[in-house]
Amino acid sequence: MKHATIRRLALGVGLLFMWAIALAQAQLGSAAALQAKYDAVQSQFEGNVFGRPLVLESTEASGQLSGDIFAVLSHPFDKVSASLSRPAVWCDVLMLHLNTKHCVVRDREGGKMLAVSVGRKFDQPLSEAQRVDFVWQSPTTSADYLSARLNADKGPLSTRDYRIELEATPLANGKTFIHLGYAYAYGVAARIAMQGYLSTIGSDKVGFTATGKDSAGQPNYVGGVRGVVERNTMRYYLAIDAYMDAPTQLAQRFATWFDSTERYARQLHEVEREDYLTMKQNEYKRLANP
User: Fold this and answer.
1) What CATH number did the domain enclosing 167 receive?
2) What is the 3-state secondary structure (H, E, C) of 133-202?
3) Which band of pLDDT confidence, cut at 50, 70 and 90, is reported for residue 235?
4) Global pTM value
């Protein structure tokens, strides 16, 4: 296979796996279970690599990639629940990601779906993007618990069984504890393409989990597909946080998300700030003028 062909394949699968979603743990399922998880992980909130109350977990199993994030949002539960129980808000969240080019809520038999297009990390025609249709599951809401889910049976290449899941519960300090999970399965075609991506343009990408230290005493971070999952787990958490910070101020939301990712530039930097802001402004104009 010629180098140019390998590079095109790597770029294509890179955007897919950078955008694709992974779910490691089963849904905790209740406010009590989520509170128990908060009690179990809060000792890891202080002095961590993130500089915020957040725990990130990732795994790689046969045919699956997975990740979970447990974090505290500095927003009251009633506002978090009212926002993230609506499918249109999830389009706003997903659109903050570099590779999400378009997202619209559509009616389907028995409910709603999110038609999502993913592509490269710069402006491009929608005809060059790839489509993933997520079924919106009716959320579970109560005075102290939110569960929202999206799922897609299939995606590009041989990927399948996509899941996005959020759980939330209020904390006594007026903030909100969340569990954000992602999952997808993949087959031979996606595995081969991912190997091409990781051996070329993705070879120097890392995640957040330290696997040891180098000769200079600096941490070595996990790479490969676990690194992909960890980077995107953080990107989507930051997207949720940015939306809650600016639910109606679009320009502020873009700036907040980008500036937050730059706190972790070793893992998350991909484009320059003005390029990102211009790209997202153009993509939202396209949403308004389909």
Assistant:
1) 3.30.530.20
2) EEEEEEEEEECCEEEEEEEEEECCCCCEEEEEEEEEEECCCCCEEEEEEEEEECCHHHHHHHHHHHHCCC
3) very high
4) 0.86
